[in-house]
Amino acid sequence: MACTCVVGLQWGDEAKGKIVDFLTADHHVVVRYNGGANAGHTVVRDGKTYKLSLLPTGILSPHMRAVIGNGVVVNPVRFLEEVHMLRTAGIPVNEQNLAVSDHAHLIFPYHVEEESLGAGAAIGTTGRGIGPCYADKVTRSTGIRVGELLYPDHLRERLRQIVPRKNAILSTLSATAKSFDPDAICDEYLGHAQAIRPFIKDTVRLLHRTLCDKQNILFEAAQGSLLDVDHGTYPYVTSSNSSTAGVWAGSGVPARNLTRVVGVIKAYTTRVGRGPFPTELDDGPDGVGEKIRKTGREYGTVTGRPRRCGWFDAVAVRYTAALGGADELAVMLLDVLSDIDAFQICTAYEVDGERTTDFPGDAFLLEKCKPVYETLSGWKKEIGGARKLADLPNAARKYVDRLAELIGLPVTIVSVGPDREQTILCK
Ligand code: IMP
User: Fold this and answer.
1) E-assigned strands of 170-248?
2) Quick one: which of 410, 414, 220, 279 has its CA closest to 333?
3) How many CA atoms lie within 13 A of 122 on its CB side?
4) Which CATH number among 3.40.50.970, 3.20.20.70, 2.60.410.10, 3.90.170.10 corresponds to the domain 265-425?
5) Whole-model pTM over 0.90
6) pLDDT (mean) for 182-202
7) SS3 of 346, please?
8) CA 34 / ligand 1 centre spacing (Å)
9) CA 139, CA 132: separation in Å to the nearest integer?
10) Which residues are CB-contacts of 191 (< 8 A; sequence separation ≥ 6)?
11) How confident is the model over 312-330, as pLDDT tens digits?
């Protein structure tokens, strides 16, 4: 029995969707355990591009059962939109192959409003109401879970208690804040409940049964480990455990069941939103940063924002690889670097004149870190057609080998383009 987790080791957008899609052949069930519709997962399959933000990308494989775990925050409108989009594209979605946890929390319109009134701006959030919804989850008295959609009178009563409190808070944040009517929200959500009802399940029991049946589970993390609310660059993080730390809490499957952790990294680094980024290339419209952004189409899947681009940071990835218990690395988007003369890899930081290879756990300390670089030569050659390591130019192989050496883990997958076939499996 295998339990594999595909986890991002940077600040998200590491192209995890492609690796999940690749690994589905060996698994039966795929589980999202954190985040919500703030994630953007793009998968190219048979020439078609699918963009999912809430449903696990593993659902694209017809044999897989997809599970949205209790650690996810669910916007029912997005959920139904994605179900509709997949069905329109000819992907079957039904209660047999999709389940949503009755214990996942629900995002309401007041969460989005609360975020738009300032709570998210300082961090540069995606504006999807994710933070306020998780805040209500831990506040407890104001959190509402998916399973409560099935009890209309109870849901109405809870919204009648909660929404006036929300309106009062919102009005103190801005005189022009929207005010919400609990009954109108309840009616709207009961409408969604009709469509979502068949998918709502006790997913913890479902996953325990999956384990008993000796079926293989694939965990699909959203965001990257540096955005983990406990272990990332706090406070510039998301509101969930986006590292493997979230698997247990967010799905009910004990972490000790994990048999394989695939750490996914880009061959460079990107970040969206605010927060320190030591290796950022802020070198103008003709600089390498812009070149990477253009070649790698580094614009947010969810918000369309240009991603900040920079060199590979081995200090940060060594930290997240250890944190997540990564067994191996998947190096993504290597082809994006094909037209660059020479690369820098950050191997250490300098802080107040001292050199360190320790990653600081606080954003305000990371701000002070200056990257110490090692330079490697580029290959200046198109590599999208490479199908084995031997097809890569020497300089590209050296680059991959050096990443493996610096992180201390084997590279098992190298991706040289968005298509499934543009993947090199390394021994
Ligand atoms: P939130 O998740 O919308 O609360 O945003 C918090 C931070 O996480 C912001 O910097 C976002 O840009 C970032 N973030 C959230 N989701 C993703 C993602 O899927 N990829 C990359 N960054 C993300």
Assistant:
1) 200-201, 217-224
2) 414
3) 7
4) 3.90.170.10
5) yes
6) 98
7) strand
8) 12
9) 10
10) none
11) 999 999 999 999 999 999 9
Centre of ligand 1 from the C-alpha of residue 15, in Å: 15
Q: What is the DSSP letter of 141?
A: T
Tokens 């005189």 correspond to what residue? 175
pLDDT of residue 119: 66
pLDDT at position 271 is 96
Q: What is the pLDDT of residues 18-34, one digit of tens each?
A: 999 999 999 999 999 99
Q: Which amino acid belongs to residue 245?
A: A
Q: Could you list the beta-strand ranges (E) of 341-396.
A: 342-351, 354-356, 370-377
User: What number does CATH give the domain 105-196?
Assistant: 1.10.300.10
Given a contact cutoff of 8 angstroms between Cβ atoms, the answer to whether 342 and 377 are in contact is yes
Give catalytic status of residue 41 as yes or no.
yes
Q: Which of 105, 103, 63 is nearest to 203 (CA)?
A: 103
Q: pLDDT digits over 76-125, tens only?
A: 999 999 999 999 999 999 999 999 999 999 999 999 999 999 767 788 89
Domain ranges of the chain: 3-101+200-261, 105-196, 265-425
Pairing verdict, β 48-52 and 41-45: antiparallel
Topology of the domain comprising 3-101+200-261: Adenylosuccinate Synthetase; Chain A, domain 1 (3.40.440)
Report whether residue 75 contacts ligand 1, using a CB cutoff of 6 Å.
no
What is the spatial distance between Cα 144 and Cα 149, in angstroms, rounded to a whole number?
9
Active site residue 213: no
**Residue of 422, 414, 387, 270 lying closest to 328 (CA atoms):** 414
* Cβ of 232 below 6 Å from ligand 1: no
Query: What Å distances lie between residue 176 and 86, 164, 179, 183, 393, CA to CA?
Result: 38, 16, 9, 21, 59
Residue ID of nearest Cα to ligand 1 atom 21: 12
